[in-house]
Design brief:
With 98 residues, this protein is α+β, with helices and mostly antiparallel strands. The protein is built from 4 helices and 3 strands, in the order βααββαα. The model has no long low-confidence stretch (mean pLDDT 79).
């Protein structure tokens, strides 16, 4: 089984450059078509073997783990325990103490 290299193209370019893209697909190029940043469909030439599977939907917990890995440890303060006046004073002191 060959590995597939995808070329990302937006839907408008796909419609306007269809002839050129058709030629590149005939040469073995696979296309991943996006509409407003969201993947809509994939065009794969017949020279490739592929198996279609549905993507697994992520849970909120998995999304939170991904965000924590990207941003670092997220410290979420509960609203009942959050003293906004104290936090505001601390930020003002930090800003003007420099």
């Amino acid at each position: 089984m060959k590995s597939i290299e995808y070329k990302k193209v937006n839907l408008r370019d796909f419609r306007h450059k269809l002839t050129r893209l058709k030629d590149s697909m005939a040469a073995g190029q696979a296309l991943e078509v996006y509409d407003r940043g969201v993947p809509v469909f994939t065009c794969i030439p017949k020279i490739y073997e592929f198996e279609i599977t549905k993507k697994k939907e992520r849970t909120r917990e998995e999304d939170k783990e991904i965000l924590q890995g990207i941003i670092g440890i997220l410290k979420v303060k509960e609203k009942e325990n959050f003293d906004y006046k104290k936090e505001y004073d601390r930020l003002i002191r930090e800003k003007y103490s420099k």
